[in-house]
Every structure is written in structure tokens, then in C-alpha cells.
Amino acid sequence: LDRVRAAGIAVHALVWAGRTDDALALVDRWQPYAEEKDAGHGPLLSAQYRGGRALALLCNGRLEEAEIAADETYARFLGDRTTEATGLMALECGLVALHRGHLAAARRWLREASALLREADPTGSLPLALSLTAQARGQAGGADGATEAATEAERALRPGGSLYDVDVLLGRAWAAAAAGALTEAQQKAHMAA
Questions:
Q1: Residue 64 reports pLDDT greater than 60
Q2: Which residues have CB under 8 Å from 126's CB, separation 6+?
Q3: Eight-state DSSP code of residue 149
């Protein structure tokens, strides 16, 4: 079980290191074991692998495949109605929709993810869901909604720094852009880069 968990963590580390093909190979190798182990340990282990596949496909630029993988994963965990797994998969569906430019779908997914992650958030992902909501609302021209979501994302950040500080800053940039404050938006986007 420890090796399966470690490999699942490695999948995400490889994605963030830009080694998406290696991440996909690791998913292919270890996901069957994760599915087997989930029978006695809940769905989060399987979610880690399924989510890792969708994230690797997204970061590899394979957006259609990422959308299919994310949607299938969400459907799998919706049946279990495990709040944290369903919330994380809704977050992933929202992330993919945002990258595909499907703003209405992104807002819908991210609203659901935020609601579920407010109930249970063992991974600390609520600030990401909220900052992506700010980005989607800002891209759609909703300055007030984007500002509100970015403010809530900032409040949800855990003390001591966060992986999601850049995402929150991008949410602020899109909120500023939607409000017509283009110089501020540009400054915030540059700070996030």
C-alpha cells in the first residue's frame, strides 16, 4: 500500500516537473493496484491516479483527452458520493473546462468543487477552486464575482505560504481586467509569472 501511495504522489510531482509522459507511464503501471487497494481504503487513492492522468493530459496539451478523463473520473466518484473525492474531481473538471475556454462549464464545475471542498478539504484545495472561479468569472467579464471569489480564495489560504498563491494572484488579475483596470491586471499577471 505504501508503494502505491508513493507512486501516486510521484505522478503529480512528475506532472509539475513537466514530465507528463513519465507521469502517464506511472499511472498506467500503478493505477490497477490503486483500484484494487481502494476496495478496503476508500476512493482517494484511486482518485489520485485518475486525477493524475487527467492533469498529465491537460499539462501535455491533450485537452480533449483530459476532458474525457476528468469527466469519467468525476462520474466514477459521484456514484460513491465521497465529498472530498467528488470535490477534487469537480475541481479538475473545472480546470480543464477553463483551459478549453468553456467558461460557463468551468464556473459550474468550480462552484460545485468549492461547495464540496468547504465541507471536506483534506488536501487544502479550496483556495485553488476559488481562485480558478475568480479567473473564470473575470474572463467572462464578471468583475464583482471575480473579486468576491479572489477575496474568498485569499481567506481560505493556509498559513505559512501556499502552492496556490500564484493562482489567487491570477484571479485578482482577471478581476482587475474585468473591471477595466488593465494596468493593475497586467501588473498582477506579471507578478504571478
A1: yes
A2: 114, 117, 118, 153, 156
A3: H
Residue-level pLDDT at 35: 80
State the pLDDT at residue 147: 97
How is residue 159 annotated by DSSP? S
Q: Which of 104, 186, 167, 113 is nearest to 139 (CA)?
A: 104
Residues 6+ apart with CB under 8 A from 78: 86, 89
The pLDDT of residue 33: 84
Contact 192, 176 (CB under 8 A): no
Residue-averaged pLDDT of the chain: 91
Is residue 149's pLDDT more than 80? yes
Q: Is residue 39 pLDDT above 60, yes or no?
A: no
Cα 139 from Cα 175, distance rounded (Å): 8
- Percent of the chain beyond pLDDT 70? 94
**Greatest CA separation found in the chain?**
53
pLDDT value for 37: 64
CA distances to 72, 77, 89 from 83, rounded to whole Å, are: 17, 9, 10
Are 122 and 84 in contact, with CB atoms under 8 Å apart? yes
- Which residues, including other chains, have CB under 8 Å from residue 188's CB and lie 6 or more apart? 169, 170, 172, 173, 176
d(CA 174, CA 98): 13
Of the CA atoms within 13 Å of residue 172, those in its CB half-sphere come to 20
